[in-house]
Each structure stands twice: as structure tokens, then as C-alpha cells.
Amino acid sequence: MESLKAEGVKDVFGIPGGANLPTYDALYDADFRHVQVRHEQGGGHAAEGYAKASGRVGVAFATSGPGATNLVTAIADAMMDSTPTVFITGQVRTELIGTDGFQEADILGATLPFVKHSFAVTDPRQIPEYVHQAFHVASTGRPGPVLLDIPQDLSRADIDYEPRTEPVELPGYKPSTDGNIKQIRIAAKALASARRPIFYTGGGVINGNASEELRELADSDRFPVTSTLMGLGGFPASSDRFLGMLGMHGTWTANQAMDKADLIVAIGARFDDRITGKLDEFAPHAKVIHIDIDPAEISKNVGAHIPIVGDVKQVLPKLTREYRALQTDSSRLDEWWNTLRGWQDAHPLYYEAGKDGEIKPQFMIEALHRATGGDAIITSDVGQHQMWTAQYYGFDKPRRWINSGGLGTMGFGLPSAIGAKVACPDEQVVCLAGDGSLIMNVQELATCVTENVPVKIFLQNNGYMGMVRQWQELFWDRRYSSVEMGASPDWAKLAEAFGAKGMRCEDAADLEEQMVAALEHDGPVLLDVRTVAEENCYPMIPPGNAARDMVEAPRKAVS
Amino acid sequence: MEAGTPQVVKLEDLHVAGQLSGRKHILSILVENKPGVLARVAGLFSRRGFNIDTLAVGPTDDESVSRITLTLDGAVHPIDQVTKQLHKLVNVLKIRDMEPEETVAREMALFKVSSAVENRAEIIQFAEIFRAKIVDVARRTMTIEVTGSADKIEAFERMVRPHGLVEMVRTGEIAIGRGHD
Q1: 3-state SS of A399-431?
Q2: CB within 8 Å: A299 and B8
């Protein structure tokens, strides 16, 4: 406990059990907040939401065996999205390890593929040192999850505690952060030669707290910017130089720009398959500058012509300085901008407006933007609603958009909203949920009520696992297999049963007003919004295709 | 202008550094001598789909450090990506991709060969040519210890196999840099 306090921990999420009783006993007197969740997976995602909203390390506790294995999805999720998190699991007593003891699970072994690092405590005196190292590894370099597994007998041992304040020394862990200046100079000159450049920015900009630095670089000339799902908010969506998100459900313009660019500047992004589409046909004309803190990302999927390993917050200002010093003539970008503007005019995000008060899911996100002033922390689950939020909310600031990008974990939205609200109690926190996803961790409504965490759940309820249905419609001959949600609960009543406020909206005309009412309510609210059932999310690059094969929403009306 | 950076960078002159070397690589990896480190290294290889051809693990002159020597095919795997992924393991201290010309690499193998009386002389002769040692003789078999490069061991295998190879055990290669470093 003392070690956690020394790391500046203010809040933790978790559930007690046999093997972590000593920790919970110490927690009884500790002066930081413990949020008692209802399922360890919820605790894990809450820790992620906490970290993503605040930039501070998120912490979750679980007991041994099933408690620990329930964390695994959250750990894998934090690994994929580089979320700074520390997971502390109880383990059976030392003499029981390896005997298949009650509630024994080799959680260290089970999570090896999903952790940045992990520690098994074998001596109580290691605990302060390992806690110190765990927070250091989780929060520096490319952030990620760290697991600390403590046998019950060792966590109850009395040790003389000495706070570790000296810097952590791990001989095998030295992230390089400054970026090679020679490479940065070459990159600046490549930018000066480029006629069709594009900045492709990712979650590294958010994790690296480098939004300001990114804006300055983009402002050093008229550089167009696109962002991955994870990078949204790293560059203001309202800027006229922002082309929207790229990738499978990105904008037409952003994807065409990647396809036709002569120079891609990848900043804290990792060329995921949802970005590149068919790898062989990705960005055929482009040279690549790749800036990332993780050297292993460079040339992993797409070869980098100019690799720069470093912290974006340190590298970008240097690149800006070098580029400005070249005093390049900005008019070389005129033709490129003409092309980009032409695409934007011809291929905007489009959906057919709802008729007779029916609620289009895209309209719901636009209403959400208006109701929250575009300034709420929005968490989401995974699926169509997630993509529509990414497309239509227009995030202007970092750490406002919290979702499960890499692992794509349904059920992430509600617990991560709890974490975000605990981290940022003064911010409006909305979980924009899907009905297929929300039910996967719906038990955390009890946490919202009991722990007084007033998150607002705006449920996009279409009665389907919508994205899977969309794929079955488009690629599997409309054979809808196990995607209908059937007798879904009466969500408003369910919320009321948990002690939260339940609301329902079935008419587009009432939606914004009801959202505002929910936001103004003093406590957790679930607003069940009945949206059009079989709406598809467009535009879309069909899986395995190239960006130029993007498909847009079919238009019935003349536009 | 700084030496080493050209005045103008033309995009068409930029190239991606080569990925596949096309040859066998020996990686000499120093790791912290802690429980589970081998599992982390082995797990990384299986998860990323890298095939290990041989693997040898042993102590070093520093008891807190162990050495993992492994060989893999650079025609199939981008070695650069393999070493960068390995470097991300916190327990991995140092990795050397051993240069073939600068390296002494050795492997040991034990061959159990069926040795009818009429073949024995020939097998013993092979062993002498390969500077191998006969370490066990039984009524129907002989066991021979061979040390050398992987090529030499494979050559010896080809020689004795027609006589009836009962069993072969190989250690995997270990390697050390030539001269001073």
C-alpha cells in the first residue's frame, strides 16, 4: 500500500478474494479510493479508461485463479492499445504453487503474450522494488500493462518499508526518446521535397501528450492530417486541414490521400491492417517517414524510408524547427489541396436522413455532439456505433475519445467510462454503447450506482450486433446467423432495477432534449435510444481490399 | 550544412533498408538469469511466427546472466524485426547477430550407429576423419561424439546414416566472436 501511495496512486479498481485478502485488509486503512467493481474484467477496463482519460497509470486488483483470469481480456486490451496499467493479482500461498491448489491459476504464464512485463513476487522484500519498477515500465517508453503476482503469504508478511525514490534501474529496459537528429534533418528535407504529403497520426500522439507539438508541425506549412481511430482528438477535427479518420471506415478523402500521397509521415501509428487494407497495394506512390517510440513498429508492416525512433513529444518540435529553417515555398502544395478539396466536396460523409421521426444512428452522434457541446469524454463499445462516433463526433481535444481499438473488446464502454469519470470527476463522461456490447459488462451499472459514479450511458439500440450483421449482409449473402439480440432487456427498467435512472427515446425530435436531460440528471443514467435497425456503416473498405476500392453509402436521393 | 545530410532530399532517392538477408543467422542473447525468461523468449517466437532452428541455453561468466544462442533462417524472417521484438523483453540485456566471418560456431552431436562387426572398421575410420570420439561401444551399436560446425555434423550424419543411424542427439549451435571484443 505504501509503495502504491509512493507512486502517486489515488484510485484503484478491483474485487477482493481469498488470495488478496491481506491487500484488502491494508486497503481498509489506506487513504486512496478503491472502486469496488462487479466483475474483474470491468475493473481492468475501468483502469484502462482511467489511464486513457488522465494519462496516469490505471491500477486494478484481483484475487487469484478466476479473479486473475477475468482480468486477461483487459490486460490484452491494454497491450494492444498501449495503455499504461498495473494489474496486481493475488496468488495462492507459496507452498501451494504448482499443486493445483484452490483458486490457483498460472496468471503470469497465461498473460505472457499480453504484458509489457510481469513480476512474480518470491520474497516480500521485493514488493516495494517491483511496484516501483512496474509503474516505471508501464508508464514510460511505449506504455503498456504490467502484471504483479503476489502470493497470499508474501503480501501479508510484515516488512520494513522504505520508499523507493531513486530512479528505476532496469538493465534491459532503456527506451530511446530523443530521435536521431540526422534522420530528423533528412525527414525535414523530404517534407520540403514532397508535393503530396500527408500526416498519418495515431494513438502515440495521445499517449505521448504531443497534440500541441503536432499542431505546430502541421502549422509549419499547410500539411493535411489524417488520424487513426486511436489518434482522434490528437489533432482538432474542426481544423480545415483535418481530413477525417482513415482506414476501413475512414473518410473517402483520407484514404484516397494515402493512396495518392508521395510522402506519408506516420506519427505514433503502426500501420494496422484496418488502416492499410491490402498491404501490397497500400500507398503505392508514397515514401514513408515513420516516427515511433517503439523501434519494433518501424518497418514491421510497411517499410520505412526514413525511420525515426523517439518520443513524439521530443521529435516533433525538432522536426518543426528543421523544416521551418528550410523556408520552403508553400505554393508547391496548392495542387494537392485542390485535389483534396475536390474529393471532400464530391465524397463527404453521407447518410440518408431518417423519415418520420426514426432515429438514424449517425444523427444520434450529431445530436450527442450538440448536447455535450462537443466537449465530453466519450467512451464506446465495439462495432458500428463505435465507428459512427469516430466519424461524426468530431473530437477536438486529446483524451476525449476512449475506445478499444486494437483488441476490439465488446463490453469495454461502460467500465472504461467508470474509470474515466473517476479520473476526471469534473468532466462530462458519456458511454456511447451498442446493445450487443453493453450487456457484456452490464453488471457495472451496480458500480455506477453504489460507488456514485454518474456516467451517462447513451445506448444505440438497433436490436442487432450491428457490425456483424452488416458483414453478414454484405459478404455472407444476408445469412443473418446469431446476430439478432432477440428478447433484449427493457433497458430503462434494467437501469431502474440497478438504481440508476432509465430513459427511452424513440423519436428523433426528442433526442437532443432527452440527452440534455440525462446529462443534467445528478447520477448515472441509461438512455435507451431506438435507432434504425439495419443501417450500414459507410464508407467502407471491404476487408482485404485496397483503399481505392472504398465503397460509399448507396444514395437513393439525388445529391 | 551539417556533414552527412544532403542539401536536398529527393523522394525518388529514398529506399527502404533490405529486410531479408537470405542466410542463416546466429543470435547470441544475454538475458537476466530469472525464472520464466526462456518462456518469454520462446513465447515471443511462437507468437510472432518466427521459427527457431536451434536453441542452446547456458550460464555465462556472470552468474546473474544467462546466454541463449539461437539460429534462424534469414531468408524467411526479417532478422531486424526479430531482434527488435526481443529487445522489448525487459529481461533481455544484449543481442548480437553474429557475423559469420567473425564468429567461431560449434555444435556437439551424439550418434548411435548400428555397427555389425563387418562395418566397424569403416565407422571408426569416419570418426577419425571427422576427429570424432567413440564414447560407447556395445554389442550392436557404437556411440560417437562429434563437435564442429553444423555443416560438419550434417556431413558426418550423411556418412554414417547408410550404416544404420539408431539415434542422433544435437545440442544446437553455440558461438563466440573471434579475436578481441
Answers
A1: CCEECCCCCCCCCCHHHHHHHHHHHCCCCCEEE
A2: no
- Interface A-B: count of C-beta contacts within 8 A: 79
Predicted confidence at residue B2, as pLDDT, reads 47
ipTM of the complex: 0.87
Q: Cβ(A69)–Cβ(A445) under 8 Å?
A: no
Q: Which of residues 14-73 of B touch A (CB under 8 A)?
A: 14-17, 19, 31-32, 35-36, 39-40, 43, 47
Domains of chain B in start order, with CATH, are 15-98 (3.30.70.260), 104-177 (3.30.70.1150)
Residue A53's contacts (CB-CB under 8 Å, 6 or more residues apart) are A377, A399, A402, A419, A420, A423, A424, A427, A429
Helix/strand/coil for A140? coil
Whether residue A68 is predicted with pLDDT greater than 50 in this model: the reply is: yes
Mean pLDDT of A1-18: 89
Task: List phi, psi (to 5°) of A188.
Answer: -60, -40
**Separation CA A80–CA B142 (nearest Å):** 54
Q: What's the rounded mean pLDDT across residues A140-147?
A: 97
DSSP 8-state code for residue A158: -
Measured CA to CA in angstroms, residue A9 lies from A6, A131, A364, B92 at distances of 7, 11, 37, 29
* pLDDT tens per residue across span A426-477: 999 999 999 999 999 999 999 999 999 999 999 999 999 999 999 999 999 9
Task: Decide yes or no: CATH 3.40.50.2300 for domain A2-155.
Answer: no
Sign of dihedral through CA atoms B61, B65, B71, B74? negative
| Domain A361-537, CATH | 3.40.50.970
Confidence of residue A558 (pLDDT cuts 50, 70, 90): very low
Distance of CA A417 to the CA centre of its chain: 12
Does the beta carbon of B10 lie under 8 angstroms from any beta carbon of chain A?
A: yes
Which residue from B14, B40, B84 is facing A305, i.e. has the nearest CB?
A: B14
Q: How confident is the model at residue A111 (pLDDT cuts 50, 70, 90)?
A: very high
Assessment of whether the complete model's pTM goes beyond 0.90: yes
- The torsion angle over the Cα atoms of residues A195, A198, A199 and A202, rounded to 10 degrees, is -160
Query: Whole-number mean pLDDT of chain A?
Result: 94
Determine whether the interchain pair B43/A113 forms a contact, defined as Cβ–Cβ distance below 8 Å.
yes
Residue closest to A199 by CA, chosen among A118, A280, A286, A120: A286
pLDDT under 50 in chain B at which residues?
1-2
CATH superfamily of the A181-346 domain: TPP-binding domain (3.40.50.1220)
Instruction: Tell me the pLDDT band of A99, cut-offs 50, 70 and 90.
Output: very high
SS3 for A551?
strand
> CA-CA distance, A392 to B34, in Å (whole number)?
50
Q: Is the pLDDT of residue A425 over 70?
A: yes
Contact present, B135 and B145 (Cβ < 8 Å): yes
Residue B17: predicted pLDDT: 84
Let me know if the fold of A2-155 is the same as that of A181-346: yes
Q: Closest-CA residue in chain A for B40?
A: A112
Q: Which residues of A touch B (CB under 8 A)?
A: 108-109, 112-113, 116-117, 120, 137, 170-173, 182, 185-186, 189-190, 192-194, 262-263, 287-288, 294-296, 298-300, 303-306
CA distance B85 to chain A (A): 6
Q: CB–CB of B43 and A296 under 8 A?
A: no
What pLDDT score does A29 carry? 84
pLDDT of residue A345: 96
Cα separation of the two ends of chain B: 35
CA distance B178 to chain A (A): 25
Per-domain boundaries in chain A = 2-155, 181-346, 361-537
The whole-number pLDDT of residue B1 equals 43
Using CA atoms, how far apart are residues A365 and A357, in angstroms rounded to an integer?
A: 16
Mean pLDDT of A230-248: 96
